[in-house]
């Protein structure tokens, strides 16, 4: 059954519906049944998918399904009456729709025709989709329905898997769990892992007694007593006391801090906190404060850039000249903001790495820009966070537990004026680093894209709430209303997104692995001697040949920053260029020296931030655009070839190990035969061609996802350009 998720019920359905599959013809359209459940909209058809040779299967979603939380806007059209309406929740529809267009948050547009369907049934299904995709209350999101069913039927499990817990990531050989940082011990382990001997786990917020937007456990300087923390907490916005994020091996700490609202106490408390941080540093170094609100784009600017990017990727016909398209891309400012986040984070890496000072990220509430900056700094400094389990633990620590407001920023309830895609911007920044240093990351760009998609599946508790306290409070209320016995548990346990087996088979999860990754335990054998991997200087610098001197070191002096016409080099805000002379020259020298050396993939990595080196993440933003798809092309062709080579190397290594220790490995053969790669070599010197189904959209398929041209036949076309969101209620003629 397509509705196998526990707690999923069919709300409404209509037969004889046509799903439009191509932009300029109806010959590929599919006939079937359109169904609205309390979890997703589903199109069930017996027709085979046209023009498509591959589909990446999600165990929770069929290939025509859209989760309700992924729906951005619902538009109903009546051709004959030339009427259209954006459907809000609890709205009436005075005409029978002949067409339904669904705009999705992942840039998809899905279109259904009701020419042969019963008019009343079509109207009912449209209203049901509008109602269930725009819930008025958090407890109406599907995760609550699922979890309620699970507690009442403990024997039932989604896809036969027990939810909750950290999940073993991608089923790596170690079967390592992702630390969720909900417990004292997870924080304590992180202190020990980073050698932060002068810091301690504080449990003053147990039961959320001090602050509802902080985790129950967090790390503070050992010299700060609980009593002082309680006292100081009243002076911070949201009572958000300073939070330790990470420690550098040289003793420098990374700390996040909200603003102090008590003006009279401001200097005194600030001094006390900074003194405590200084005392936690082995060299008693100074503290460097970075005011993120002054240095980085705010959440409204990031949201405005995202809306423009969405319009560009979805509404602009790709037949336009490249010149116009590139200038439109520049005008979105999306790439400019990515550069600013990367550049600012790299400057703070310099302060910790080279100046040996602790860095305090200051932000009004300390739960937006500081999530992004703290995470990027740690990805650049600590190779553990470039592994799959490490990266997942980083998101738990710096986003989920630190109180990033996923509910509001992802706008799951469709009524937040606080929507802003900071989490997507973080994943995009990480993708830029992955693109520049492919061998430094254990995960692939497919993993990052699917992680972004998973934030809009309302089954997982990971990205559903504004803070851990909200999960406990809301789920406890829900448990009482549904007569669920919680016992000792703090709130209900929701399925965790890190348990990837809920969504994908073990075979499909192999696509998350980056074949170029060189793990620490991957020595290569050369002339009989084992050597660890190091990129030669000549090999490295050749990638930068032809770049102007100012771009080679990733730092841009102002004269070099005048963009050529049509170039993608974007201007920085003036305040970024006006740094103090001393710090600036020392920093430039550090970057120059760093970029002159071969990269240590298990050390610091720094971003190239010149205009040409910050790119558009095509897999994420173009995957649903048929016109942008390159058959048998795109990065996946290199990914495929490298996978075969890496698989051959693995096979050789296994044979070598087996040869050296004949009998001792015999019992372990089945484990050795397991490849870590999705694409596998057929023996040595495999020269087989790439599979026919590879395209630049792989593993996604744009078939049946439409661009603007497809709707030119309807009166909608003239409303599609220039709307605030794709179609805003203001610009659409109201049906009344």
TrEMBL record:
A cellular-component GO term for this protein: cytoplasm
Under the heading InterPro entries, the entry gives: MTMR10_PTP, MTMR12-like_C, Myotubularin, Myotubularin-like_Pase_dom, PH-like_dom_sf, Prot-tyrosine_phosphatase-like
GO process annotations (BP): phosphatidylinositol dephosphorylation
Q: Which Pfam families match?
A: 3-PAP, Myotub-related
Matching entries from SUPFAM superfamilies are given as:
(Phosphotyrosine protein) phosphatases II, PH domain-like
Q: Does the keyword Ubl conjugation apply?
A: no
> Would you say which domain of life the source belongs to?
Eukaryota
User: Which keywords has UniProt assigned to this entry?
Assistant: Phosphoprotein
Q: What organism does this protein naturally occur in?
A: Calypte anna (Anna's hummingbird)
- Which residues does the UniProt record annotate as the domain Myotubularin phosphatase? 181-621
Record's family?
A: Belongs to the protein-tyrosine phosphatase family. Non-receptor class myotubularin subfamily.
Q: What is this protein called?
A: Myotubularin-related protein 10
